[in-house]
Amino acid sequence: MASYKVVEQKHKSFMKGRMTSQDLEDILNQNATAGWVLDRIVAGETFSMITGGKDVFLIIFRRD
Description:
Elements lengths: L2 E8 L10 H13 L3 E10 L7 E10 L1
């Protein structure tokens, strides 16, 4: 059975230029050394009436 781990980076996305490739590499390496394998990466936006939209970058790992 697979287990999943979601790493959420708010206010960071490649589209807005706030997350660098070094930031992503650091996250991938930290989780890889703990035994997690990259499953997928999802970028999107949240909505809030008070603060407006926020960029959200999800990095999803799995472990079999």
